[in-house]
Amino acid sequence: MTPTTVGAYLRDLPPDRRVAMARVCSMIRRSARGVRESMRYGLAFYELDGPLFALESGRRHLSLYVAEHEVVIKHKDALAGVNANRSFIKFSDLNRLPLDVVEKIVRDSVAARRVRVSQGNVPTQAELLKLWAIKEQAALPADAVKAAAAAIPAGASAPVVAAKATRKIADVTPPAKKEGAPAKAAKALAKAR
């Protein structure tokens, strides 16, 4: 199951990444009063009048996506792993997170967001996902993706791959409405065999 809360997301991480991620999440909540925390696209999102930050735990790194692009540029020289084009910071050493610099980025981002809100110039979620190069397809539950990949035969053509992947994802995705009588009868017959 894909975690639906940041707490569940943290619980599922290995201990070293869990500690590093929890420290950054805690610092954001403490330094950016009024942010709303949620899970979307497999990322911990922090919102203040729209998305402001997103955090991702990679295998050997922690990534911080920042909505306020000018803040990232302002602090670019203070941090390694900054991709100013994508408004993204990658922390490779989880034992030595520069929380003091990250806290400045968080506080400056909140101030910049408040100015944007007063000007009516807040970026949309779609604009930020494009800036951060996050694809909405990445939000599919891991079980659905694994099931779809397992069903694709080696050497299959692109249309066959797409059709099988779509069918498999539909098979593992819970139905949106109740099953009708024919579907219930088919299930009962399958169980009886």
Tell me what the structure shows.
The protein folds into 2 domains: 6-136, Aspartate Aminotransferase, domain 1 (Alpha-Beta Complex); 142-192, no CATH class. The two termini are 29 Å apart. The protein is 48% helix and 15% strand. α2 (15-31) packs across α4 and α6 crosses α7. The chain is globular, with a radius of gyration of 21 Å. It has helices spanning 6-11, 15-31, 69-74, 99-119, 125-131, 142-150, 158-172, 181-192; strands spanning 36-40, 43-47, 51-57, 62-66, 82-83, 88-91. The chain contains 8 helices and 6 strands. The chain has a 6-stranded antiparallel sheet. With 193 residues, the protein is α+β, with helices and mostly antiparallel strands. 20% of the residues are buried.
Radius of gyration: 21 Å
CATH class of the largest domain: Alpha Beta
CATH architecture annotation name of the largest domain? Alpha-Beta Complex
Major sheet? 6 strands, antiparallel
Determine the N-to-C terminus distance: 29 Å
Q: Work out the helix count.
A: 8
Tertiary shape:
globular
CATH topology of the largest domain, which one? Aspartate Aminotransferase, domain 1
In round numbers, the mean pLDDT is 78
Report strand order across the widest sheet.
1-2-3-4-6-5
Helix content: 40-55%
Give the total of beta strands: 6
In short:
48% of the residues lie in helices and 15% in strands. It has 8 helices and 6 strands.
Tags for this entry?
193 residues; alpha+beta; six-stranded antiparallel β-sheet; Aspartate Aminotransferase, domain 1; 2 domains
Topology record:
Elements (H helix, E strand, L loop, with lengths): L5 H6 L3 H17 L4 E5 L2 E5 L3 E7 L4 E5 L2 H6 L7 E2 L4 E4 L7 H21 L5 H7 L10 H9 L7 H15 L8 H12 L1
Antiparallel strand pairs: 1-2, 2-3, 3-4, 4-6, 5-6
Helix pairs in contact: 2-4, 6-7
